[in-house]
Amino acid sequence: MDPRTRDQLETWRRKRNISGQRGISTIRKTEMKWVQIQHRTFAKWVSQHTGSNIENFKVDFIDGTIFLRLMEVLSGKSVKRYHMFPQSITQRCDNVQHALDISSSED
Known about the structure:
By secondary structure, this protein is mainly α. The chain is 64% helix and 0% strand.
């Protein structure tokens, strides 16, 4: 690499507060912090409304029971039958489908 080009690149990085080729800009760090704050806020909100302790949405929503309870709270409707402790993927899918049915029903 030409020394002048290297100096220009280094100057460009300094102006944009980027350290190294794989550095994360200040804007990106701010965006990541914002996403983390939103995630925590939504997790606390869901926890309050469902009576569950949400930490990781991918793990906690996987069986559909918390999602189902959340949809019950939001819609004001109750689901009479669902798999409280789903053992198979079919039962998990049934729970998620019930929750989606609640959200899409108009009456």
